């Protein structure tokens, strides 16, 4: 239950960030940086009667119907919720915080901040095994029928939208939007890596039994034990390997320092870990 509540809260935080980045920074500058929102900005240029938020709802509704028919239910209820949630939040912003002009007049500054805020929001949503819809759905269709990598599929769809933006807003804004698409990909990948990063710690110590006990009882983790032999000393040694979160690693490092200042430790970054104590493979 706690996991579900945490997931729900994080998805909503991500949705608000995505909506804020789009509404306050990208939309006032007509920066169509891909996705359903980018397409909605382009369409809004030609159909002024509908707000960007409502156009996004129509686009996502159309895409989810196609996804349901072609892909099946694999896109998940959370993605449906997040997609329409972002559109709904933008509609609320438009009603209660109307913006007619860009905040600063510096298009590059607003592009960077818009992409950073919305990109971090998307990364949070993606990390909960959901998506904000739009070109993600088209990418899944391309993957199913043409075996195109999902990341490349999203990039292809987004670049097509930025080309459409050239006809709506001119080459300059289209190039800014294309730059935004590229930055957005890097932001999402790096944020997700940062959220999921764990530490693989290898420990060789004369007090390995104390360290094992601390890992098991205080950190509530388990380690793998290998039997090794020192090349110079020819002594048998226990080699402990454990995967921990960043905070747990800091705590363990302090404990090891207190029981064996000469312990040998190596640390590697692990960007995803599945199984007991970590994410489920079916998540």
Automatic annotation (TrEMBL):
Q: What is its main location?
A: membrane
TM region(s), chain numbering: 7-26, 46-72, 79-97, 103-126, 146-169
Q: Which UniProt keywords apply?
A: Cell membrane, Membrane, Transmembrane, Transmembrane helix
UniProt entry tagged with the keyword Transmembrane: yes
Cross-referenced InterPro entries, in alphabetical order?
Answer: DUF2179, N-reg_PII/ATP_PRibTrfase_C, UPF0750_membrane, YitT
- Sequence ranges assigned to domain DUF2179 in this UniProt record: 223-275
Give the source's domain of life in one word. Answer: Bacteria
Q: Does the keyword Cytoplasm apply?
A: no
Q: What is the designated name of this protein?
A: DUF2179 domain-containing protein
Source species of the chain: Clostridium tagluense
């Amino acid at each position: 239950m706690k996991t579900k509540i945490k997931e729900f809260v994080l998805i909503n935080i991500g949705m608000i960030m995505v909506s804020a980045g789009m509404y306050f920074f990208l939309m006032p500058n007509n920066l169509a940086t891909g996705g359903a929102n980018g397409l909605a900005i382009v369409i809004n240029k030609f159909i002024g009667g509908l707000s960007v938020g409502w156009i996004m709802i129509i686009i996502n509704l159309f895409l989810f119907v196609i996804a349901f028919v072609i892909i099946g239910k694999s896109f998940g209820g959370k993605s449906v919720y997040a997609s329409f949630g972002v559109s709904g939040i933008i509609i609320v912003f438009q009603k209660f915080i109307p913006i007619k002009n860009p905040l600063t007049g510096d298009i590059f500054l607003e592009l960077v901040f818009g992409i950073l805020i919305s990109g971090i929001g998307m990364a949070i949503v993606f990390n909960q095994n959901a998506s904000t819809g739009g070109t993600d759905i088209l990418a899944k269709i391309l993957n199913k029928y043409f075996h195109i990598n999902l990341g490349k599929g999203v990039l292809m769809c987004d670049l097509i939208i930025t080309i459409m933006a050239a006809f709506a807003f001119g080459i300059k804004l289209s190039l800014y939007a294309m730059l935004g698409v590229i930055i957005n990909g890097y932001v999402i990948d790096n944020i997700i890596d940062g959220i999921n990063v764990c530490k693989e710690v290898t420990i060789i110590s004369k007090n390995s039994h104390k360290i094992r006990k601390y890992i098991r009882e205080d950190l509530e983790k388990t380690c793998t034990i290998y039997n090794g032999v020192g090349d110079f000393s020819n002594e048998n040694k226990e080699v402990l390997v454990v995967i921990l979160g960043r905070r747990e690693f800091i705590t363990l490092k302090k404990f090891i320092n207190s029981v064996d200042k000469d312990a040998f430790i190596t640390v590697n970054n692990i960007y995803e870990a599945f199984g007991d104590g970590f994410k489920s493979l079916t998540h």
